[in-house]
Amino acid sequence: MSTKLMGYVMAGVLVTSAGIGLVRVRNERALLGALTDAAGQSVANATASGAAALIAGYDYGNLELLAQNVTREPTVVSVTIHKQSGTVMTRAASGRTGPARRFESPVVFEGRTIGAVTVDVSTGPLERALTDLYWRVLGEQAVFGSILGLIVYFFTVGGIVAPIRKLTRVMEETVEKGDSFVARDLEVKSGDEIGRLVSVFNTLNRSLASHHRQLQSRIDFASQELQEKNIQLSGRTRELEHALDLLGTMAMTDWLTELPNRRKFDEALTRMFHQSERFGEDLTLVLFDVDHFKLINDSHGHGAGDGVLREIGTLLRLHVRKSDVPARLGGDEFGILLYHTNAGQAELFVDILLNGVRAHGFVHNGVRLNVGLSIGIAQYNATMKTPEALYYAADKALYQAKQGGRDRYSVYADAVRFLDGKKP
Fold it and tell me: Which of the residues are catalytic?
């Protein structure tokens, strides 16, 4: 009878231990899974937020750079950014393999959905953590169950069925409720072996409760530590991105006008030229010089010339769109890339710019300066095989504007006729 009873008790203890272990692992799986999902969705949302202005501005180069930066995150497997129509604008992969979860986020610009971002996040770290937790909990519960079964076996005598059944029922009820331990001590009614068994059970139950609280505390601590590490990692990532952005801005910005410099302009010209060549989209280049700029410097000093250049940079920023690229190319030479713009539309823009410069009061040390612009306009066409050809066409038009009396603009088609000796 004692052997049979010992078998019953052992079975109950092992089932209880296994149930507790499974409940714990499932609970932690849900918690860690929620944290992983939240982190993955956060990456997708942040990427979508960063991509909104780039998609709206057709900034394919920075879109690729954004996707590559996101794949440097330790858990990111791949990033895909596409338009609302489904056309993939850029895709980047980290080279990591293994199971992953996919997170998507719409790209919204000025209240309108213009695309979507898909981010695949590796679940390898989560699965490894859950596997380690499962075997650790299972081992602890198995050891504890074995010890408890042996104690019951050595302190149980045959023939005491009813008290043992009562004890078994209490344990089974605890398992059915899903509790990890009995909420209260069992009553000790005698001082014999059964009474001592109940006392030992109460002691072990309290020990189990203590171990449960300690284990839960360790799990909570580990979860909190993981959250803190994620926060620290996010902070360092933001600091690195800020530093990279600052370095990129310094390398691509003219210090005087705070406009993009020649290097940034040449990169944008090459990129937009090939986009127009590939997709058949309009692209117009505007080049202009400040009329008699050397005379301003000679008559009023270089401080006056620098002031004129700064104010022209300010006027440019007021007139261009977000998709346009204004730049100071060097000295008093400026350039503007007008995307999705033909020559006729560029003429309207240039008229507004010229009128704005004429109406603007350029003053240095109380003296009003006479400032005008000579402007050349050239639209991309299929005969232009390189970005340099488009630049050369705009430069020809600029030359005609200067030859025609300055403070005016000229379009490339007219410039060709003028330079060939024909009346425009």
Answer: 332
